[in-house]
Amino acid sequence: MNSLWTITKWMMREKKDILLSIFFGYAAGIAAVALFAASGYLVSRAGLVPPLYALMVPVVLIKLFGVIRAGSRYRERLASHRATFTILSELRVRFYRQLEPLVPSIFAKYRSGDLLARVVGDVESLQNYFLRVFYPPIILVLVFLSTIFFVTFFSFAVSLWILFGVLVTGFLIPLGFARIRAHHDETIRGLRGDVSIQLTEMLFGYRDLKLHHQLDRTKQTVYSHSERYMEAERKDTTNQFFNSALVVAASLFVSWGVLAIGAYQVVNGDLNGLFLAMLIMMSLTAFENTTPMAVFPGHFADSKQAADRLFEVTEPSETIEAREAKRQDVTFTAAPSISFDHVRYRYPDTYRDVIDEVTLHIPSGSKTVIVGPSGSGKSTLLQLLLAFVRTEDGTIRLDEYNVNDVKQTAIWQHASVVLQDNHFFYGTVRENLALAGDFTDEAMNVALERVRLSFSLDEPVLEKGANLSGGERQRLAIARALLKNGLLWLLDEPTSALDAGTEAHVFSELLQQAGTGTLILVSHRLTGLETFDQIIVMEAGRIVEVGSYEELMTKRGMFYELKQIEQEVFAS
């Protein structure tokens, strides 16, 4: 319930439209009851054939209540839907703001298809929270309290019977179905998440599935998940129809009870028969307000599950804002030094430390290369340094600042970064280079020349750089880093897809541009490392060797062995 309470607090920002919706909803509901009450009285009164002037007041009241009902219903729909759309927009913005600080570490815990289902489906589900969950019970209570109060002046027994009917049709039946729906809705959401995951995996891996002749099997898996999801939806729809039918049947039973109690009192002289039709018509009309409560269980469970799933991914905005407020927005005027002190890290829901008791120091302005076998934790060190992921074991410092106490943006604004997987947006070369900052076309062209790319700035770039080769994508990412020219250079396998000649040229440009900046390079290749100030060798998340090229070769340790293996491979 805490998640829905948070949604409710966010929703109350639209206080004006919410209050208008409640006011006009109540006015429309009570006007409808008054309209049919006056109609019932008019029918009974007309049966006694009174003078025409005696019927003028009920006729005028019927017309008046009809106008009030129509006008109030229109204003209620206008205000409630305006509030709903504004609330939905606010939910999207708030969820994005809470999700943004968790990227990219969130992908270590959630699959992209599941995140897509939550961001799209669950946020959309909450649009029904105000119209179908929060709002109807308020109108129901207000209309029935007014109706019961009025009926009390004519028959206390009838008012008690109507009160009993309200409790049954408006609360007991919906609550019973809500308990049943809660478990079923969790199943539906899980199945919908499975379908999203399978579809996303199939779309992203379509080419590989075709190459390995696995597309048909994957399609069958998607169809199987879809069938289970549709079957669960059909069962849920059937339950909702049954709930609606039960509420309507109970409402009619209450109205028949009003007729029976009223008729008995008329016979005993406890009720004027002139008002019996009026009480019956009031009962029939008032219980129309219980109809929305028939779908209340479904929308309540849907909203509860949606809110829980959203807040399972994110954290309360107050927590994020409080934590970010404590972090420093620092500015570096010179290349920072870097130190790791007994740092350990493992990804969420995994059992192996990818960084295990790492302690090292990288002086300001130095050039460092990190080498080692695949999976030894080299790339994770850069992610920790960029605050993509944060560790609670050990300390990472930029100069005297603890990285955990520094805002991510404060680090990123000083960093020129080239990762293994660099994203390129649909647009032009110019637009993708402009991510590094506001540069002239001349500066962009110079950066392209330095990485040996003969692109026009207006040349199109497809989504994810689909029209670029692996080497072109790497060089375009390096061109962005050259343009930004930060004080901290973090390069993760930046030239792995380049030929030897182009790689040597690009490395020369990088080292020249980095100048007095602090540079860290992650590499599997061991050639051309003689110019680096220090080489760090990692294995299984630990640092096994640190030193210059000459020192490590003289030591004849792991680096020497890796170098010998590389030479043998290329010699053969």
UniProtKB/TrEMBL annotation:
It is found in: Cell membrane. InterPro entries: AAA+_ATPase (IPR003593), ABC1_TM_dom (IPR011527), ABC1_TM_sf (IPR036640), ABC_CydC/D (IPR014223), ABC_transporter-like_ATP-bd (IPR003439), ABC_transporter-like_CS (IPR017871), P-loop_NTPase (IPR027417), Type_1_exporter (IPR039421). Keywords: ATP-binding, Membrane, Nucleotide-binding, Transmembrane, Transmembrane helix. It is a multi-pass membrane protein. PROSITE patterns: ABC_TM1F, ABC_TRANSPORTER_1, ABC_TRANSPORTER_2. SMART domains: AAA. It holds the Pfam family ABC_tran. The chain crosses the membrane at residues 18-42, 48-68, 133-154, 160-180, 241-265. Residues 19-288 form the ABC transmembrane type-1 domain. Residues 338-565 form the ABC transporter domain. It comes from the Bacteria. The keyword Endoplasmic reticulum does not apply. PANTHER family: ATP-BINDING CASSETTE SUB-FAMILY B, TRANSPORT ATP-BINDING PROTEIN CYDC. This is Thiol reductant ABC exporter subunit CydC. It comes from Exiguobacterium profundum.
